[in-house]
């Protein structure tokens, strides 16, 4: 994942606020990407870093709310 983000830091679905949701299939679950995990990343080119904000199982949470995203950004010192 780290190498993939280095190559293309803006991969995934844009969530706003320079954040992206990357869908990852978990083959052992047998459901493809729809039953896989999600990686939430934040790209800030000012400091040249990609920040991993959250990873969650789609079976536990369907989507991330704007409020949750703001909280993750605040905890990382990015908001």
Main attributes?
79 residues, alpha+beta, 2 helices
Question: Gap between N and C termini, in Å?
Answer: 24 Å
- The total of beta strands comes to 4
Overall form: globular
Spatial order of the strands forming the largest sheet: 1-2-3-4
The percent range for helix content is: 10-25%
State the major sheet: 4 strands, antiparallel
Radius of gyration: 13 Å
Percent of residues in beta strands?
25-35%
Total individual domains: 1
Query: What letter string, H or E per element, gives the SSE order?
Result: HEEEEH
Structural class: alpha+beta
Account of the protein in words:
This protein is an alpha+beta fold. The protein has one domain. The chain is built from two helices and four strands, in the order αββββα. The protein has a four-stranded antiparallel β-sheet, with helices on one face. β1 (13-16) and β2 form a beta hairpin. The longest helix is centred in the C-terminal third of the chain and has 10 residues, at 66-75. It starts with a helix and ends with a helix.
Topology:
Blueprint (H helix, E strand, L loop, with lengths): L1 H6 L5 E4 L2 E6 L12 E8 L4 E9 L8 H10 L4
Antiparallel strand pairs: 1-2, 2-3, 3-4
In short:
Helix content is 20%, strand content 34%. The mean pLDDT is 84.
């Amino acid at each position: 994942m780290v190498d993939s983000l280095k190559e293309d830091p803006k991969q995934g679905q844009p969530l706003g606020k320079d954040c992206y949701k990357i869908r990852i299939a978990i083959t052992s679950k047998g459901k493809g990407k729809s039953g896989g995990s999600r990686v939430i990343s934040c790209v800030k080119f000012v400091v040249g870093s990609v920040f991993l904000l959250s990873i969650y199982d789609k079976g536990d949470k369907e989507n991330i709310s704007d409020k949750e995203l703001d909280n993750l950004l605040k905890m990382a010192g990015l908001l």
